[in-house]
Amino acid sequence: LMPVGRAAAPLILDMLPVLIFTMLYVTFCKIQVSDLRPRLWHFELQGIRTLLSAAVVLAILLVDDFDTKIVLEGVFICVICPTAAAAPVITEKLGGNIASLTVYTIIANIVTSVIIPFFFPIVEKSADISFSFAFVMVLKRVVTVLLVPLCLAMLTRRYLPRFAEAVKRQKNIAFYIWSFNLSIVMGMTVHNITHAPVGNLEL
């Protein structure tokens, strides 16, 4: 299947952001503007995540052992990364509150656009990037991936209610799009693992 993968990969990778946008748009069409209210727990969890990130950064700076430092850097990535954009889709599938998690996801990504440019240069001292450049770069992705489909969905509900209702009736379409996206990401991950150099060899 390798020749097929090489031929299809560029097209599939170009489809990925479009599919994520569509998936979120379909999900956000089911949200009412009045439900988009920040809650105390949204900010409490961001405070906890920021403190954990700072604690892991401190541990990285204090540790001299290379292998331990690598593990801690992995932990740092896990802690500092924001909630995935697909979280509202899975929340809907599980019967949770889409609006509340959407607000949380937006807040989490905005906080991420601040803490990543602040902490990352401390961990990776060779990174030649300014705080403002990194902040704008991360925030741009947040706006593109989350806020644009949300605003478009709200405008659809306001000015094209029949179309919004038709979208809302498609119960599992966002979940199926997410599943397809996940299969693409899994394929990319397996490809990267199998072609990762280990010593002077490949797996």
Keywords:
mainly alpha; globular
Share of helical residues: over 70%
Structural class: mainly alpha
Strand count, sense and barrel status of the largest sheet are:
2 strands, antiparallel
Number of helical elements: 8
**What order do the SSEs take from the amino end to the carboxyl end, as H and E?**
HHHHHHHHEE
Mean pLDDT: 86
The geometry reads as globular
Based on CA atoms alone, the radius of gyration comes out at: 20 Å
Instruction: Characterize the quaternary organization of these chains.
Output: single chain
> Whole-Å distance between the termini?
18 Å
Low-confidence stretches: none
Beta-strand residue fraction: under 5%
Widest beta sheet: strand line-up: 1-2
Give a structural overview.
This protein has a two-stranded antiparallel sheet. The chain is built from eight helices and two strands. It is mostly helical and 203 residues long. Strand 1 and strand 2 (201-202) form a beta hairpin.
Topology diagram in text:
Blueprint: H1 2-28, H2 40-62, H3 66-80, H4 87-93, H5 98-123, H6 131-159, H7 161-168, H8 173-194, E1 197-198, E2 201-202
Helix pairs in contact: 1-6, 1-8, 2-3, 2-5, 4-5, 5-6, 6-7
Briefly say what this structure is.
The chain has helices spanning 2-28, 40-62, 66-80, 87-93, 98-123, 131-159, 161-168, 173-194, and strands spanning 197-198, 201-202. With 203 residues, the chain is mostly helical.
